[in-house]
């Protein structure tokens, strides 16, 4: 039985150590969100609770083990210990002190002696609030509560120094725009603009993880727009840098960038597909800027942009290390996003589905979102295509269930015969024909014709053999 949060709190108090709840949980509590309804995070992160303590990492480990909890060092460099509790993963970090080496690839941390010293090292004022787990005291040295009220992201202290200490904070800020719908305070934003080049010093893993969180936030359009506004696109997503200002034609309300961010925003789902679909939306028109040309009628054309876009997607997903499977899938979705089979033509619908390798729902979600910022409305077509695909899936499932279209009773009535082993034989034959695709599931008429033919010959003979 894993230890509870209460047991952890008591154990730290017992050992004479301060234990403060900090980070996202305190912020969201002050935003008025009940802990269980935090909705700005992917589910897998939802139970993470961040604590700050006066105990050194070894001591934290000892306390965790004494509780019988699973204990892991999460970031030795940061002094973070993970303690697996009943309902949460407690990430317990020793108070940080004042020794970041400016410009270094990884911040170098020494330990501090008070919660206030620790809070001064944090990224934004709204995250620099802590609650003492034993006394309930709230520490908020940078008036983070006022910024929560105003919905502002502000770096505590001098923002340029803070971003130089750890440039990832720039991307964390943009990510919080998407997750919380907050705005970046002006001075902090100016410091981000002045510091974007430092993003090049970050490891790709840290950058990709922040982009992923940004994309899966509640306000991804605002987050992406902030990313563009501070000039970060050329540094973290250079493949997208040609989109802003790439005008389109009368079918579109926005330039390629505005259209792309609107498409990402229009992807709404609770399912595990959110990340995949948001990425697909972000990348679907990647090929447009490089292929743009003037058509005979004088308008911009984007012929073959889905093919060029798919190739660019391959390179981008590899660079971001998104994983081979996800990369291939995203490339496929980009490649096929212009597909438009006639929903009334079964053969075309089947081919469409086969090309999507089981992901036609993801493509349809992309097409619907894509259409959300077009000047025309394609909902009716998408409804028809979806219904057609559902029908094919239902037919396939019926084929695999391979049930005889006629049951025993119906066969007895049809052939006017007594019950007997002949029924099983005819049903077996009919279901095999269904499985082989030679008889449509539920086609009683054709099944009756076959049954009559069999009833006159083989089945009867077989029955008389049974009797002998
Ligand atoms: P989430 O709700 O996504 O967990 P969070 O604010 O808890 O958001 P975490 O990444 O879990 O973010 O980090 C926990 C806390 O640690 C943050 O609230 C912030 O105070 C601090 N923190 C994390 N990373 C940094 C960083 N790079 N620089 C400064 N402080 C940081
Ligand atoms: Mg957290």
Describe this structure in words.
- The structure is a single chain.
- The chain has 468 residues and is an alpha+beta fold.
- The protein has 4 domains: 1-145, 2-Layer Sandwich (Beta Polymerase, domain 2), CATH 3.30.460.10; 151-236, Hydrophobic Seed Protein; 243-401, Hypothetical protein af1432 (Orthogonal Bundle), CATH 1.10.3210; 408-467, no CATH class.
- The protein is 51% helix and 9% strand.
- The chain contains 23 helices and 11 strands.
- The chain has a 7-stranded mixed β-sheet.
- Strand 4 and strand 5 form a beta hairpin.
- It is flat.
- It binds adenosine-5'-triphosphate and magnesium ion.
- Magnesium ion is lined by residues 23-24, 48, 50.
SSE blueprint:
Elements lengths: L4 H10 L4 E4 L1 H7 L17 E6 L3 H10 L3 E6 L4 E5 L4 E6 L20 H5 L10 E3 L5 E2 L4 H7 L1 E2 L5 H7 L2 H13 L2 E2 L1 H10 L8 H12 L4 H10 L3 H4 L19 H11 L7 H10 L4 H4 L1 E2 L5 E2 L3 H15 L4 H13 L9 H10 L4 H12 L7 H23 L6 H8 L5 H15 L8 H13 L1 H10 L1
Parallel strand pairs: 2-5, 8-9
Antiparallel strand pairs: 1-2, 1-6, 3-4, 4-5, 6-7, 10-11
Bound molecules: adenosine-5'-triphosphate and magnesium ion.
In a nutshell, what does this entry contain?
The chain has 468 residues and is α+β, with helices and mostly antiparallel strands. The chain has helices at residues 5-14, 24-30, 57-66, 115-119, 144-150, 159-165, 168-180, 186-195, 204-215, 220-229, 233-236, 256-266, 274-283, 288-291, 305-319, 324-336, 346-355, 360-371, 379-401, 408-415, 421-435, 444-456, 458-467, and strands at residues 19-22, 48-53, 70-75, 80-84, 89-94, 130-132, 138-139, 152-153, 183-184, 293-294, 300-301.
């Amino acid at each position: 039985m894993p230890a509870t949060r209460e047991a952890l709190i008591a154990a730290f108090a017992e050992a004479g150590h301060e234990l403060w709840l900090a980070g996202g949980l305190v912020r969201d509590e002050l935003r008025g969100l009940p802990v269980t309804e935090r909705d700005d995070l992917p589910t897998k992160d939802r139970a993470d609770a961040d604590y700050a303590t006066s105990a050194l990492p070894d001591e934290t480990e000892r306390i965790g083990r004494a509780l019988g909890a699973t204990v892991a060092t999460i970031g030795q460099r940061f002094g973070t210990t993970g303690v697996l509790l009943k309902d949460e993963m407690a990430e317990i970090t020793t108070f940080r002190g004042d020794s970041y080496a400016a410009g270094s690839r990884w911040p170098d941390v020494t330990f501090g002696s008070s919660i206030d010293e620790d809070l001064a090292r944090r990224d934004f004022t709204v995250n620099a609030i802590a609650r003492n787990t034993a006394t309930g005291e709230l520490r908020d040295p940078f008036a983070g509560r006022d910024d929560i009220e105003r919905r502002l992201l502000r770096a505590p202290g001098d923002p340029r120094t803070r971003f130089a200490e750890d440039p990832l904070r720039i991307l964390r800020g943009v990510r919080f725009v998407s997750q919380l719908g907050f705005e970046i305070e002006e001075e902090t934003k100016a410091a981000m603009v002045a510091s974007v080049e430092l993003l090049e010093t970050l490891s790709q893993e840290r950058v990709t993880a922040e982009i992923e969180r940004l994309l899966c936030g509640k306000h991804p359009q605002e987050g992406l727009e902030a990313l563009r506004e501070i000039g970060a696109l050329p540094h973290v997503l250079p493949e997208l840098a040609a989109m802003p200002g790439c005008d389109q034609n009368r079918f579109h309300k926005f330039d390629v960038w505005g259209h792309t961010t609107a498409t990402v925003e229009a992807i709404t789902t609770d399912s595990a597909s959110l990340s995949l679909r948001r990425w697909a939306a972000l990348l679907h028109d990647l090929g447009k800027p490089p292929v743009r040309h003037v058509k005979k009628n004088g308008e911009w054309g984007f012929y073959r942009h889905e093919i060029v876009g798919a190739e660019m997607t391959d390179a981008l997903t590899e660079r971001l290390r998104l994983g081979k499977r996800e990369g291939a899938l995203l490339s496929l979705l980009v490649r096929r996003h212009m597909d438009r089979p006639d929903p009334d033509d079964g053969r075309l619908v089947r081919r469409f589905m086969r090309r999507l390798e089981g992901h036609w729902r993801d493509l349809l979600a992309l097409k619907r979102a894509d259409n959300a910022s077009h000047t025309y409305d394609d909902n009716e077509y998408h409804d028809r295509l979806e219904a057609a695909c559902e029908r094919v899936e239902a037919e396939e499932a019926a084929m695999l269930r391979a049930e005889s279209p006629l049951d025993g009773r119906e066969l007895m009535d049809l052939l006017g015969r007594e019950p007997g082993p002949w029924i099983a034989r005819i049903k077996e034959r009919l279901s095999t024909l269904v499985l082989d695709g030679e008889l449509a599931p539920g086609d009683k008429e054709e099944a009756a014709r076959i049954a009559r033919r069999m009833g006159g010959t083989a089945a009867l003979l077989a029955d008389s053999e049974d009797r002998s």
